[in-house]
């Protein structure tokens, strides 16, 4: 049944049915994701430059901070949409406002890496979150039993945004400390807001959204693979190693895709606690996928002698993100759907990938280890699938 509309052409924002048949990502949600392609690409590019210039600690810290802004804004919209999406004109306008905030964040990322200047990023982030406050306030009018939850979300998010604005008058290490504290405050908002009553979520819809964002991030790695071929065309002396890197990157990226989509993710969010684990752990999964593309670019610099990093250090910029990605997916989705063999091979494979740079031909063996994990998953289907 089509929801009734008001004179202003607005659809009452009532909680969506968590068992709604055929629920899939909307065209608006797919459009929303496009701006994150830009933000992730800029963050990965800046991380690449920082790592190649041997500013490792500073680069990783800056990347972790700006990626939180990207990830948290995306995740909050995604969970709100699974509960209250209406797709009327006001919902679309507020979503586009959030998109504008993402683009502002993307524009300010370079300043964070270069000068520790968070002004533009904070401004863009607050724009995104204020639009989210408006969505929660609107939902509170027709949310029924979820009204107190919606009001708590709106109030708590507003308080945290005021805190973020105070960072604009801070400098030095004070900003870093404040950032860490305010991140914890953001993470606490859903826990506090839903302590008595939880908003409904559609397991298949929400996990589809996470899968789509993962594809965006893996796309950055495929771009890095293409860049290796492009570089090979211009650098004939390094033609062989660059082509090999491109092929191995494709193999590893395909393996990461295979590993991510092997388990039935919707079974991982059966309770509020499990949904928190699933959502929050994805920060590391997503950040690792983005960092992997940066690591490939560092490897290209290493092959073409455009970085001061040692070969071992350059290899670690690739293998650490892969290991984190694999372990993260195993922790939140694979281990509860796998037999003993898979639960041994997957984490062991991740550890071997992590140790791989100490071997004379590191990245080639990384591809072998990842292929071995995939082969194991092919032979051993998910328990829920084999049971069915």
From TrEMBL:
Residues 1-22 are annotated as: Disordered. InterPro entries: Low_temperature_requirement_A. The keyword Membrane applies. It comes from the Bacteria. The chain crosses the membrane at residues 30-48, 60-77, 89-109, 118-137, 149-169, 176-193, 213-230, 242-260, 280-300, 312-334, 358-379. Keywords: Membrane, Transmembrane, Transmembrane helix. This is Low temperature requirement protein LtrA. It comes from Kribbella rubisoli.
